[in-house]
Write a structure and sequence with these properties.
With 280 residues, the protein is mostly helical. It contains 11 helices and no strands. The termini are far apart.
Amino acid sequence: MDQHVTLQAPWSNLSDMAHSIDLVVKQGRWLFAIAIMAFGAENLIVARFGPAVVPVIPWATRPILAYIVGVALLAAGLSIAANLQPRLAAILLGILFLICLMAFPLRNAIASPLDIGFRTLVFEILSMSGAALTLAGTLPAMKRFSRPVENAMHVLITSGPYLFAISSVIFGIDHFLILQFIASLVPAWIPGSGLFWAYLTGAAFVAAGISLATNWMARWAGALLGAMFLLWFLFLHAPRVMSFPRSHNPNEWSSAFIALGMCGGSWICAWARSQSSQRS
């Protein structure tokens, strides 16, 4: 009796896997919108703390500014999630983050360029701006503007993936500068040494940033980077914000939603790069 063996081309499996990845990374928009709304709500809640820096991205330096930014972030996140002029909302959100970057932490980072804390604040805001602008590029235009405005918007949208990629590389480099601290954050129940995971995540940041910037295997790099951030959110940050007294610390909540926002941003970049590759 004849036996017929069906051989499936390896690129068919790769194509199916790529399609599955696209289905996942396409959800980055919703995770990013949730994080943005959370930042907005946090700003409104902790703005009453006083004149010190509000411990929520984008790190406003005055309560009144935190109230204004909080309302703007809530409106932008709701607009993106509810599909109400989401492209315009994403562009304005990216611009808002750039304005906040120049108004709040950038001057401190320039004054103390070797301070990793200040540098981290700068590139956290820059990465959120890059994610928002990249998201805008994946959404259809629902309203047309004058040619100069459209050209300016195109420049901003085009810069989005590179802003996110640069931030990723910087995060990776900074990981290598504070390996022992990063290793101390790894939960004890995770197998392997904390130092191993610190090296691995630092390398992952740098590799993903280069991949997203060059658009070489960017879909895979963004998907995996986002998965790493999602695991951080679920297994590192979520348990911390659910435990007393950390649950009363705004910095813990900020770190958690930054991880969620970075997950969404990574997947947004992966989806955008995937779409651009299909068009080329």
